[in-house]
Amino acid sequence: MLEALNDFLSGKLLIVLIVGLGSYFTLRSRFVQFRHFGHMFSVFKESLRGQAGQLSSFQALMLSLAGRVGAGNIAGVGIAVTLGGPGAVFWMWVTALVGMSSSFFECTLAQVYKRSDGDGLYRGGPAYYIQHGLKLRWMAVVFAVLLLVTYGFTFNGLQSYTVTHSLQNAFGFEPRQTGIALAALLCLVFIGGIKRIASVSDLLVPVKTLAYIGVTLYVIITQIEHVPAMLETIIKSAFGLDPAFGGLLGSAIVMGVKRGVFANEAGLGSAPNVAAVAAVRHPAAQGVVQAFSVFLDTFVICTCTALLILLSGFYTPGFEGDGIALTQNSLAAVVGDWGRLFVSVALSLFVFTCILYNYYLGETSLQFLSRNRLVLIAYRALVVLLILWGSVQDLSTVFAFADITMTCLAFVNLAALVMLFKVGLRVMRDYDEQRRAGIAQPVFDAARFADLDLDPQAWPAGQHADRPVPAAPQLAPAQR
């Protein structure tokens, strides 16, 4: 019953909504992701510069990539190609293109309605823009509870099972012992809060991403003469024009869109919680950075995996097996048996940073629901216990339930995005007007948006483009 319900909600209804609304946002914004595509790289360069005591836009990007770039980029692409053929990759690209606009608006709104947390940092996300933008506290609470259950608890247990059993298959490590080591390492990170999580992500995300891209590019370069023909196969298969994959047209579309949605998370409501933590000059700048994150996840990393599989010669139509095995065997077919070990290590790093990302999403939800310090400590302890339990338990049934709660999460977020879309357009146009006026780094002046429920500590009124953004003030203990 869970599988049937999940297939309808996430396999059909959610796909239609995300692709449909992503297309609508793209048209209404005059193709914001294309207009700002070249600008994304300059914003990304600027994001490297942070403010003292604040999290930079780059750190927020690394934290969001910790979640976006995960098992879906290895196993998910393998599943899409196995069930939908090469054409599924094309539909992943299409999904990412429209998803970039959804990510732009949800992350921009997260910045607009973010709140100072009293410690000089920021919190935000769909729960915050639902409460302060729509004035619907009950809807915000529903979102926060769904996010806490889905990411804070369930997905962490599942990710623990994935990494411990991957290492057991590759190196023979005992899952229980690996689970204890994993929990101990995560404890050290959790105790340091968001700053330590961001610092660890700063280190691990570029390492895991560049190492994985480097190895897959090696395979692509060694087979470079076959790449044009393979790209042609991908495009032909997407429209049923390749005889070898003609019967997979329907599956190519469904699997490509579904795996694309769950790989880049655009519109699901998870990434905005991370996007809100950055100290930026203008909310739309973080929207541009997060749109770039979707591009990097799908067009770079997922494409590298797809080409690795298709160029290796291991994959054949009708292949039966899981996505991880397909990727492992494809790499091993080119570089030797160490390729299987590399994929296991890469998957472990991907999963480790995903757990950090999931934990932070849960903490953000908890902070929205309760600011009690003891509740936060209890949450951390429970997450660690779930990681230990998940390391030795197959949580596939729980995962099916979590898929449903995540789909419900996306429905709530998409409804909020539709209702707040005009606000998002206003902020985008303000950003565009400043850029047209020759201002390289637009600044958000809260005085021009006095009708919105903004946090004056996060967005002081009367800012000008030639002034830096003030850091959120530190409050005395008595004020917290």
TrEMBL record:
Keywords: Cell inner membrane, Cell membrane, Membrane, Symport, Transmembrane, Transmembrane helix, Transport. The keyword Cell inner membrane applies. InterPro entries: Na/Ala_symport. Residues 459-480 are annotated as: Disordered. Residues 468-480 have a biased composition (Low complexity). It is found in: Cell inner membrane; Cell membrane. GO terms for molecular function: amino acid:sodium symporter activity. GO terms for cellular component: plasma membrane. It is a multi-pass membrane protein. Gene3D superfamilies: Amino acid/polyamine transporter I. NCBIfam families: agcS (TIGR00835). Belongs to the alanine or glycine:cation symporter (AGCS) (TC 2.A.25) family. PANTHER family: AGSS FAMILY TRANSPORTER, SODIUM-ALANINE, AMINO-ACID CARRIER PROTEIN ALST. This is Alanine:cation symporter family protein. It comes from Pseudomonas laurentiana. The lineage of its organism: Bacteria, Pseudomonadati, Pseudomonadota, Gammaproteobacteria, Pseudomonadales.
